[in-house]
Amino acid sequence: MQEFNAVLDLLAMLASDFRMGGLFVLLVMAAVSDVRFYRIPNWLTFGGMVFAIIYGTFAARTPMTGVQNALGGLGTGLAIMLPFYVLGIMGAGDVKLMAMVGAFIGPYQTLQAILFTCIVGGFAAVTVAIHRRRLGHMLANVKGAAQGIVVSGIAGIRPSGTIDTRQSIGKLPYGICICVGTIAQVLAHQLGFV
């Protein structure tokens, strides 16, 4: 019976919380765009950020709390994902999308959403590698990247910041992973699992 009540609470939250409904719509739009064009439009990410900051300002107990929460989440998403863009692992649209997510859900939930997203991304990468019969190649790439990180950390050598695309197993539209990971985190949070 508790599970049923939790599901009803979840549905009520999705129906009454315009912010979460807006976030889910924007995430699905970004995922579809990423699959079709390997691109997440700036109007979607920046528009979502502005909406989240304005909505958070008026929906919070005090406007300053809402602004701090939105900007803290935006900064958290940006700070954690930006190094992956610098290293050439993901695109700028993915970074901006995660920053937008942070503006909607705040810094603490953004950390959780990034963790959920990385788990979904790992499963997606393995699935794509198996489908393309390139799993061994992918594992060799992961090993090489891990060794490079360890060596650069120990020796203090700065990584080159580029990845040889000839050794890549292909592109993965990470907007899907961000969409699924974030929605899973929001639902898990609403149901009390995290």
UniProtKB/TrEMBL annotation:
GO biological process, one term: signal peptide processing
UniProt keyword list: Membrane, Transmembrane, Transmembrane helix
Residues spanning the membrane: 7-32, 38-58, 70-90, 110-130
Ranges of residues in domain Prepilin type IV endopeptidase peptidase: 23-125
Sequence similarity: Belongs to the peptidase A24 family.
Name of protein: Prepilin peptidase CpaA
Pfam families from the UniProt entry: Peptidase_A24 (PF01478)
InterPro entries referenced in this protein's UniProt entry, alphabetically: Prepilin_IV_endopep_pep, Prepilin_peptidase/N-MTase
Gene Ontology cellular-component annotations: plasma membrane
Statement: the UniProt record of this protein carries the keyword Transmembrane: yes
Top-rank taxon: Bacteria
GO molecular-function terms, A-Z: aspartic-type endopeptidase activity
